[in-house]
Amino acid sequence: MNVEITPNYSYIFDFENEFIHQDTRVWMVKNWTYVFYYCGIYMAVIFGGQHFMQNRPRFELRGLLAIWNSLLAMFSIMGACRTAPELVHVLRHYGLFHSVCVPSFIEHDRVSGFWTWLFVLSKLPELGDTVFIVLRKQPLIFLHWYHHITVLMYSWFSYTEYTASARWFIVMNYCVHSVMYSYYALRALNFKPPRSIAMLITTLQLTQMVVGCAINVWAHGFLQTAGKGSCNISEMNIKLSIAMYFSYFVLFARFFYKTYLSTNARKGKRSVTSTSNGSSSVSSAAAGHQYTSSKQSANGAISANLSMAAAAAAAQQNDKIKAQ
């Protein structure tokens, strides 16, 4: 391991020290078509599952959901702790150009390299987030499944190229997911974190998208000035990445506005809260209010009709008595 490029880790696990990045890259390149099969199966399962659950009662799954989110939270925290030191070390000692253009985080750092590989692989089981949405019959918004699919495909593609700028994306994602899945785990355990935490998570996600776009702009600039031989990132990767991050920014910004800033959100008529997997669910408070109001109106109309009928019957009876 090149100690001049890698940070001084206090402890290195055996499974990290035994990581051989060349073997994983060969496997990822050889099996790159698998990602399309996974995405196809994912789409069939979630939309087929929605159809299957349409006329069936929802599952609660709170215990399983708490375990699921807790495991993802612990994994993300560990990943952040094992990859962030490398990024900080490189920025301090080698600068921005190295952090964007030199893939030493895979080629020379077995700790960061191992957790980079796990990061890519983790995007596959994270698809399971959507299964909880389907089984619990929560609204499945476009942002949720679009984000899951594109991150999986882009991560796999970038690993096969050893995209140097990916170190930024990986560290940011690990850090945001550490907070996000911890929040979801607490919610699944019936804790009620303040609403400001949910706002913070979406703000962190928006910040992640802005930084992601900025990194791609810098990468493009470095490619033009230093040349392709000096910066290990392809033009195609930059185009795909900036399109992906910009689309995320637009979708998350729209979600943030509708959830926290819109008139309905401020009045509490249509509160949108993050679910266990990063999507959104519309609160039933508004629907319940509408149902109650309509029910009260219906009851009032029925009562009025009954009163009128009773009055008419009484009048008829009085007429009969008078006639007698």
TrEMBL record:
Catalyzed reaction equations: a very-long-chain acyl-CoA + malonyl-CoA + H(+) = a very-long-chain 3-oxoacyl-CoA + CO2 + CoA
A GO CC term attached to the entry: endoplasmic reticulum membrane
Top EC class, one word: transferase
Membrane-crossing segments per the record: 35-53, 65-85, 142-159, 165-186, 198-218, 238-257
Keywords for this protein: Fatty acid biosynthesis, Fatty acid metabolism, Lipid biosynthesis, Lipid metabolism, Membrane, Transferase, Transmembrane, Transmembrane helix
Gene Ontology process terms (BP): fatty acid elongation, monounsaturated fatty acid; fatty acid elongation, polyunsaturated fatty acid; fatty acid elongation, saturated fatty acid; sphingolipid biosynthetic process; very long-chain fatty acid biosynthetic process
EC numbers, comma separated: 2.3.1.199
Domain of life: Eukaryota
Membrane topology: Multi-pass membrane protein
InterPro entries the record matches: ELO_CS (IPR030457), ELO_fam (IPR002076)
Protein's cellular compartments: Membrane
Similarity comment text for this entry: Belongs to the ELO family.
Name of the molecule in the record: Elongation of very long chain fatty acids protein
